[in-house]
């Protein structure tokens, strides 16, 4: 749980300082888009490798290393004095972000399977809680005239130290659980679960990609949209980022109960509809009169709040669906690569479109994808959830985690 919260703080330190970094180096939409593409290239290259490393060295070991190193990598953007150096630091940061995201997903899947009930949204809620805290600290720092480079450097060091402390508490590799002698019972023949098929993994990954693209649009462009389109100052602009993640956090902490009550397909249909309405409000904000400054900002904030609430449950549901049937590191890392690819390449694509047209036109891309999630995701999830087939190795790992959870639980 704590590792997810720290990862959210890392994301906030990067995303909510982008408007100030943009102002410091006078990047503009085109170079911001190229910067985000550099981050995406690094992350997408790292994710498949991270899945292989996790299978070889275990997910907890990978997470223990990736968390503090990813935090320290924020010192690169903090010290960059040119666009070229900033781009190099973004590639390095992307590699570490990609590795960290795969390690986090594997840990979350293992925990949910061990406890035997939906907890994925809550775990991701801790991530967004960290993002809200990080965004609030950045906004406070900028409002008190703290240099953005100081904010990044101090934040990087603090999160790295916390990551080292959390890493000591992560579960290491476990010896195999002994089994009685004799031949292993052969399972009855059955068709592979739908979610085991490559086409289903790809479909779930694409749904996750659509959700991550809308989330990435908020992370990387909500603040820039406020400064360059709505004409606000960077400190006020960072509040849009924070509002998005406040809504996402609240929805994720309520999400497990909502999914248990309504089912995954219905939940994701309602989520996609809310996110679509949110983007409609975001795109309406600059159409309001320029004299109504507060109304424009209020409309944009309301839009990002709805977009955050609607986006909140999509990736937790996708991850939980994959984990319910097969938590193999390489399979999960494949879906994670596709999904996070949308979140990483998408904002860069938005920057490219904004450079050739306008940022409001570019934001039509995530708006359209939220509608796709609302329409396409429910039948895909229904097909994926028809059957699940946990592997014997996963059953053994879950037994170990369940024993640990019982040991950690307070005695009555």
Topology:
Layout: H1 2-15, H2 18-25, H3 28-57, H4 59-72, H5 75-79, H6 83-115, H7 120-143, H8 148-167, H9 198-228, H10 234-262, H11 264-284, H12 293-311, H13 314-325, H14 329-356, H15 359-362, H16 364-384, H17 392-408
Helix pairs in contact: 1-4, 1-7, 1-8, 3-4, 3-6, 3-14, 4-6, 4-8, 6-13, 6-14, 6-17, 7-10, 9-10, 9-12, 9-13, 9-14, 9-16, 10-11, 10-12, 11-12, 11-16
Report the helical percentage: over 70%
Radius of gyration: 21 Å
Total helices: the number is: 17
Largest sheet features? none
What is the succession of H and E elements? Answer: HHHHHHHHHHHHHHHHH
Averaging pLDDT over every residue, what do you get?
80
At CATH's second level, what is the architecture? Answer: Up-down Bundle
CATH superfamily: MFS general substrate transporter like domains
Overall domain count: 1
